[in-house]
Amino acid sequence: SKPTFTLSKTSKEALMDLILAENMNRLVGVLPAFDIFLHFIQNSYIAKGLFATLILVMLLTVHKVNDDNRLLKTCATLIVVFIAIFLGRVLQMVLPFSPRPLHTEGLELTLVNGLKPDVLSNDSSFPSDHALMFFAMACSVLCYQRLAGAVLLVHATVVISLPRLILGFHWMSDIAAGAILGGLLAFMLHRAITRWLSRSPLLAFRARYPGPFHALLFALLCETATMYQGSRQLLSFLADLARLA
Asked: What is the pLDDT averaged over residues 78-87?
């Protein structure tokens, strides 16, 4: 059965959230092909993380006069993305629990076929860690490559955020908060991290140990493409072992 929660918001923002949630979800069930597409997008790391990470790979491999500078800036973006994911999870855990539209009492939203009624019911809705991560990536790239940054902004809006609104995974305020936090994080940290990397042994390590360097970079790109799913599973496994010890 569908879990239910009582909506605690009473502000105009909450009313707007309710109106948008109901109206966006009306797109579900109209066209079967669109429902299948939505289900694919929300499950697919190919459409989400892999697409965005491929943009970063292209930026890494573009031959410019100063390739070291491009490497530093792209590595700074990867660090910003990691911080954004970490921040999003921490905020979801420490802030008051916010039920998702799908699990809010009084909202009878339509589920896409194949989606379980209790999906994400134990995870707080605010803020959207998807929006936080992908807008942080887009704004970080925007600091040094406008076209690629613009493509990632469109991707973060249309591919990442819009389907989650339609499916009832997030309120508009969740997405807006994630986007704003991600953008602020990128604009505040990108240049500082780039300067820090330029003073670090990173470039010397790449020159001396190119094999291990590129292997570690590949692993970091893979984790970014999957929103650090592998690392999360590893941490969960280690936590289970610690509890048994």
From this structure: 92
